Amino acid sequence: MTKKRIIRILKWFFGIVVGIVLLITGALYYFKDEIIGMVLDEVNAHLKAKVQVEHVDIAFWSSFPNLSVDFNHVFIQDTYEYATSKDTLFYSDKIRLRFNPMDIWREEYRLKRIDIYPGTLQLKVDDNGKPNYDILKETSDTTATEFEFDLQKVNIDNLRFSYTNRQINHRYATDLITTELEGKFAEKVFTVHAKCSQIVRETRSGRVNFVSGKAVDMDINLAIDQNKGTLDIPLTTIYIAKLPFQFSGFLSPDNMKFSIEAKKLALTDVANNFSMKEVEHVKKYSGTGTVNFHLLIEDSRKDDIPVAVDCEFGVKNGKLIEPTQNIRISDLSLNGKYTNNNGKGNEYLLLNDIHFQTKTGPFRGNLKVSEFNAPRFEGKADGNLDLAAVHLLFPVPTVDKLGGNLVVNTTFNVQSIPKENGKTTYHILQCEGGVELVNNFVQLIDDRRYFHSINGAVFLKNNDVGVNGLSVKLGNSDLNLNGMFTNLIGYFKEESKLQATMDVQSTAIRVEDLGTTSKEVQKQTNAPRAYVLPQLIEGKLKLAVGKLSYEGHTFEQIQGNLLLSDRTLSFNDIKFKTSGANVAGSVKIKEQSEEYFQTVSTLSSSNIQLKTLMKDWNNFTQTVIRDEHISGQAAASLYLDAPFDLRSGANFKHVKADLQLKIENGRLKGVEAFKDIVESLKTPAAKLVLGSGNIKSLGDKLSDLKFETLENTLTIRDGVITIPEMKINSSALNIETRGTHTFDNKIDYRFSFRLRDLKEKKTSEFGDIVDDNTGMIVYLRMFGTIDNPQFEWDKDSKVADRKAYIEQEKQTVKSMLKSDLGLFKKDTTVQHYQEVKRPKEILEVQYGEDKQQTEEFEQEKKKKDSKLNNFLKKMEQEDKSRKKVELEFE
């Protein structure tokens, strides 16, 4: 066969194939509407409920060799009269009905297979026993149609199924991972082979959930008789959590009965497969003992008689060993029973004759759980409990780690009451006995806090709880409690407040240890906010804390009284030590909303070491004056009103504060800002006015500035620190200053000093030359930001000072006229003149020892100096001073 002939045959072959494909595709397109219409008519003929379908399409090549009708995004609403579009009976992304294409060609529509893709099916029965799944029409029409039901296979993938029966208050929910049903569904009597792999999410009665998160696998046959309306499941094996159970069932129009039973299951298998923790690296439990289980579900199919559920189970001769923690439980036995007593509200779970032995000793007890809508727990516990062993037998879903020894002897009867807001309150009907904790530890799931070394005794007497030497450690923190809690019953019922009277002692508390997550994690995950301080607890606590630290700040020797009420902490007469200083006062912290606090503090200290304070508080997050620049001792009195967010910190824009500060023996050495001031003066104009030598002298003096006393009151409002005008009398020169400094480091400072202070102290042949506070005053302004300060001559301050000086001189003249001449007598604003004592130079000339002549000379001089002469001399002196001050420069 030649190459050309092979190529010709291939062309014909592929041409025929393409032709067939095009022919089939064209035929499907031509008959599409007819096929879809036929299927929809047949579906609507058998369903009561309205079916909403977003899109219907024909597919052949994706379901080859079958032809399929695809219903996309199918929704069926509940059949209840009050149901809305949010009440879903059934939803699926896609339902595919498969047909034989040759049957379609012969206009015979025989349904062969149904595929159901991801979706949900929610079956419900209301309080009156009415279901929401009554969607099939009852019809006696025997007219033949072109549509035939020849179903042989049903495939279901990823369907979320739930059944809620409010008549008996039961709910079952499962995820059907894969389900295959095969059988001749069109026949009257047939057998369905069912294979199913699912995850049980919930098996609940009332508020009590029995099994969740367990895998169930089954491969069973169902005998169906449509003539009699029966379904029979012969005894077969199913696997629950990989354990074999015998399953059988029968369903007819008159009754229903299903049974699940297991005899002599190995206790180790039950413990390994029903553990709440699915951790691969944990070694399997070893031991001996057997478990028996029998569940029976019956229904008479009458509306006035609900479904009856009874279950019995027990453990005999049990022994378990957990190798990783060396937990050993021996002599384990218990008998259990559950029944709903044929009615909602009558169910109960009973655990009788609980007995086991651990390394801490024997334990006996019993427990009854009833009223599942508001579960009541009543029972008795007596003996030593190894909490790790208890957590092994009865794991609590919210607890990750639990251990230690618990010596218990109590009788209890407690009922949990659900509320509309989703919370639960507790009604304590009886609670008596005592509990002793020995080296306990606990850690909750998704909680970084690990509480350990829990020791102490708790005494229970219904409405009161006594705590004796209860100690606990958390990270680097520890706590010791002694006292009483009263009104316990009213507190758990949320009817009244719990009263606490407690002595609280601690050697160290680290605030960062107390949070369930770090501040960074809360910000990243945007975790929901919750109140930190309780609303229904009132307490009187006596505090004695050795050390408390928060974000690098340390407070020591804390003593005082704490009042807790209405989410408010009031520290009265609190004393503590920080940065070597003794501090006393009061602090009030109120949680105004979730994790948002308002703090009001009144504190004072008289022995603050500035260098230590600046170093311990990280120089208050500024770099102008650091701990290596400053020294001295201070006394301070602080009033602080500040909002505080537990996640973001203090809200500085809304801080209000008044700080009275007095610094003694202060010293500023090597401050860079002072160097910037000196550099700003090294301009030609400044050198001309001040002189280069004077500028250099200023720099030398500011490099090491000492002052005996500095006193002022600083205020904080709207994010601005305001420093009122104050005088700094230092070893270098006397400076008057004022200014503002914002929390975002914007500054505006004003300085003034006398030019003659820059010069070295001069002397004459008659002694030291004393400053008479006259001479030219230099005004400077530093503004901008702390990282990039700007400097200029402060003309505004100079003008303001000159106006103030002139006004003062006017008042002085009026005072002198009032005192000497009797003017302005009726003006109460004018005060009598008080002569300012100024230092004077006294020239003494000795002519001999004639004292009598000297005394006569002095008396004669005093007579000549009348009040008017003194006044004229004063005016002359003030006029000279004013002329000197009015010297201006640019």
From TrEMBL:
Transmembrane segments: 12-31
A GO term from the CC aspect: plasma membrane
BP term (GO), one: regulation of protein targeting to membrane
Signal peptide bounds: none
Top-rank lineage group of the source organism: Bacteria
UniProt region (Disordered), positions on chain: 848-870
Keywords linked to the UniProt accession: Membrane, Transmembrane, Transmembrane helix
Protein name (record): AsmA-like C-terminal domain-containing protein
Organism: Taishania pollutisoli
Source taxonomy: Bacteria, Pseudomonadati, Bacteroidota, Flavobacteriia, Flavobacteriales
